[in-house]
Specification:
By secondary structure, the chain is mostly helical. It has two domains: 1-55, no CATH class; 56-99. It is 83% helix and 0% strand. It contains three helices and no strands. The chain has helices at 2-25, 36-55, 57-94. The longest helix is centred in the last third of the chain and has 38 residues, at 57-94. The radius of gyration is 26 Å and the shape is elongated.
């Protein structure tokens, strides 16, 4: 998951540098008034999103598999804890105690 995040960040930073160079060289339009910095960041974000969507497909699938495995492991642990609590509760009721 960290690897995917760092790769996405790298693509964004690369696009940011390219857009910054294009804006300051006059190839791409500058923002209106004092919004030049925000314009560069937003343009880099819009350009990097589809690039990372296509280029990082395999890495995104690996990251999602890790998330699914972690969720399944947590669910299994919760179910194991729940069954242990039910066993203790049943034992206490059998002995005449109430919780």
């Amino acid at each position: 998951m960290l690897r995917y995040t760092l790769m996405r960040l790298g693509i964004f930073v690369g696009c940011l540098v390219v857009v910054w160079g294009l804006v300051y060289s006059g190839v791409a339009p500058r923002g209106v008034g004092g919004s030049n910095g925000m314009w560069i960041v937003l343009l880099a974000l819009v350009i990097s999103a589809p690039i990372s969507f296509v280029a990082l497909r395999k890495e995104r699938d690996r990251a999602s598999m890790q998330v699914v495995q972690k969720v399944e492991r947590v669910k299994a642990n919760l179910e194991a804890n729940r069954s242990q609590e039910d066993g203790v509760d049943d034992t206490a009721r059998a002995q005449g105690q109430t919780s």
